[in-house]
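On clarity, I found the account of how folds are encoded harder to follow than it need be. Since the whole study asks how a given chain folds, the encoding of that fold should be made plain. For illustration, here is how one protein appears when written out as sequence plus structure tokens:

:::
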Amino acid sequence: DAVAFTEELVAGAGDAPVYAVVNPGYATFEGKCESVVSTLAATGRSFEQLGAADPDRYFENMDLWVLRPPG
């Protein structure tokens, strides 16, 4: 459940940033990473992508996101 996971994650982080390393489309976690990213983006906190997957350069592609603390 992406919503319950995100609520617990954000509550536990308090005023610290939350970093998410995401591999969209990864077969074992189909749709779960995308659900968590969407839910983090809906928290109202600043959420930005710091790095994007580069399939030409890396076999295991991942995006890096940060959810910044409020204020």
Remarks:
- The radius of gyration is 13 Å.
- The mean pLDDT is 85.
- Helices lie at 2-13, 32-41.
- The beta strands are 18-22, 47-51, 63-67.
